[in-house]
Each structure stands twice: as structure tokens, then as C-alpha cells.
Amino acid sequence: MTIDSATIRDLVNAHGAPLTLYARQFFPFGNFHAAEEVVQDVFHRLSRLTPPPDNVSGWLYAAVRNGAISAVRSDKRRERRETDRQPPLFQPDTESSFDAEKIAMSLTKLDREQREIVTLRLWSDLPFSEIATLLDLPKTTVFRRYGEALETLRQLLDEP
Amino acid sequence: MTDELDPKLREFETRLRRLKPYCVSPSRPPRDWKRIIACTLATTATALAIVCMTPTSQDPSGAPSGGIASSKVPLHQGLTPPAPASTMRQQLTRLLAEMDVTNPVAERKPEYPVIEIAVNDAPPKENISPPFERLRLRFDDHELSMF
To answer: What percent of chain A is predicted at pLDDT more than 90?
Structure first.
């Protein structure tokens, strides 16, 4: 028994954007199209999975992570081709004084693991325990690295 | 655990959270939607490529022109050995009839009015090239039809 298309569609609506943002952290310059392809492949696989995973959200993030790592390894040429026309990482921010583009640029200054942790925590709203499982790190390490990454971002953005 | 963060960082964190990840404009059918169709089709199809026909700037009506393909989604899952294209077409017709594919379109003004699904009974790795047997789906305001 597989997940029906309507449920898949709901899952895409709920998780598509944060999963794509997460996948983009694996590609230099946040390659949107490559990341989007990874996410779509994951939903495609999910739709065919029998039986469906118990923890769908956890499965999605793990699958996107594996897919993105694999895509980066196997498709460097496409990556270079597609770096010229990239949509922004974030929607234009209307609620705060943050410059979304500047934040996207600052994220690139973090190492990949920090970008993963920050993205998963802030914009996917995953608890530290799930991030720790996903990255196969102790929870305390994840928390420490998260704090360090936030501090780095704060300095890069000249925040008081 | 977040409570253990420095108050300055916590406030910074709260502000960062207000940013929303970029998502595909709701004004056009997202690629994930195409993929969902493809997923359903791929359960019985041998090989599919979905080509989204983009309108050009010279064509304000949004009609497809010049056969411009914005994306191809070849799928290589399916029957072994490949079924003939005519069988695929029958299966696709039946599947499309069964699928609830009009709702996502009805809520949007599609920027891409035509999606072309190409079915090929050639070996999977060669299915990018013609000959395709083509099914073209046109999205009118609330209708999805094949022609």
C-alpha cells in the first residue's frame, strides 16, 4: 500500500519549500534547480514506497540529504551550468529589517554542516534531537554548532 | 534547549525564523505537480518524458510556441520488457481519466498552459530522442484535456 497522490500533494505543500532550501545548502551557490530535482525525486520515491515510512518527515529529510550528497558527487557539470540564474533562497522579507539576500550570502560563509543545522532548525523547525539523528552527531554537538553558526551569522550581518 | 542560547542570539534567531524559504510561484503549476502526475503514470509506464511547453514573450496569449521545452522529466521505471507505445497510451488515457488532476490547476492561472507527456517504447536510456508518441495536455481554466 502506497501513499495516495492527494497526501503526496499535501506533503509537497507542507515540506517542499523547506526541503528545497535544505537541499540547496549542499550545492555551491544554492543551485535551485538541482536541489528542486533532488526534492522531486524524493517525493517520487516516497509515492512508490511500500509500505510508507512511519516517520514521513524524518524519511524525507534523510532522503533529501542522501540525494543531495549523491547529486553533488555525480553531477558537477550541470551544477556549473545552472549557477547563473538562481532564484533567491528566501522570499523577500517583509516582516523584519533583514536583507534576505545578505542572509543568503552569509550562509555561504558557514561550513556545510553548520548550514545544514541552521537551515533545519530555523526554517524546517526540526528539533535538535532529529537533526542529531539526521547528521549522526550527538545532540550536544548539534546545539553547540548551532550556537556557533548563529554567532557567526550575527557578526557577518553586523547585528548588535 | 534553545532557552540555553544567549538572549541576544535568541532574539536574532527569532528574527531569522521570520524569513520564508523561497518557493515556486503559485501562479504556475509547480514542477512537483508535474512530477506527481508522472509518479502515478510511471507505475505502469515504461518510460516517460514530460515536457513543459513555455509561452514565449512574443506570445502573450500563453499558447505554446516553437516547441520550447523548459524541462524534461524522463522516468525510467516501469515494465520490463517495455510495453508497446499503443499499450502505454491506453494505460495513460485510463490513468489520466482516473486521476484527480484538475483541482491544482483550477486554483491557478497556469503560466504554462500545455504539458506534453511523451511516451517512448525505446530502451530507457534512449528515450530523450524521438520518436515519441505524444499526448498533449492542455490546461484551460478548469479543464485538463488531451489532444
So the answer is: 48
